[in-house]
UniProtKB/TrEMBL annotation:
Name this protein carries in UniProt: Phospholipid N-methyltransferase
SUPFAM superfamilies: S-adenosyl-L-methionine-dependent methyltransferases
Gene Ontology biological process terms in this record: methylation
Keywords: Methyltransferase, Transferase
Length: 182
């Protein structure tokens, strides 16, 4: 994906936290808990230009679903170029994710992948997004995130009661990868 699109977005939009697309190493690390052999429902927060989205679509079954959220218009235009009926794009904030997703997905989502910069959010917004995420996930569903620091560990522990972290150094910048299970 174009680094130029990320650079433009970074300078125009205070909510874009990266100047480069996520590396393939980080994508694989974040997605490693996903069993792509099963039909799954995935929600991606901050889908950017679709680096994770394309990887997920290449690996998921024909009956799986992918819901993508991106508010930056430059990145959303790139995301809209994904021509796959399994992918549904929203140019809306994940602050309203519970209201935007189809009713039948509530409590049935297998994985939520998040690249939104939680460190940019106030505590109420962060808490609301994580609470909504917990309600969206099925029992055993997982919240998978990547952030530039370890700041999300305690909020995830408070919401889900558990969290695993690891570093992915083969990314610019290096990322903390989070996994929390409902």
């Amino acid at each position: 994906m174009s680094t130029l699109a990320y650079l433009k977005s970074f300078f125009k939009d205070k909510d874009v936290a990266s100047v480069t697309p996520t590396s393939r190493f980080c994508v694989r690390s974040v997605c490693s808990p996903i069993d792509f052999t099963k039909d799954i429902t995935v929600v991606e927060y901050g889908a950017g230009a679709g680096v994770f989205s394309r990887y997920i679509l290449q690996n998921m079954t024909a009956d799986s679903k992918l819901f993508l959220f991106e508010t930056n218009e430059i990145l959303f235009e790139k995301l809209e170029q994904i021509n796959d009926p399994r992918a549904i794009c929203y140019d809306e904030s994940v602050e309203f994710v519970s209201k935007l997703l189809p009713d039948e997905t509530i409590g049935e989502v297998d994985f939520i992948i998040s690249g939104i910069p939680f460190s940019f959010l106030d505590e109420d917004t962060k808490s609301s997004i994580l609470s909504q995420s917990s309600r969206l996930l099925r029992d055993g569903g997982k919240f998978l995130a990547y952030q530039t620091s370890g700041h999300l560990k305690e909020p995830l522990r408070q919401t889900f009661g558990n969290v695993k972290t690891e570093w992915e150094w083969r990314n610019i910048p290096p990322m903390t990868v989070y996994e929390a299970e409902k």
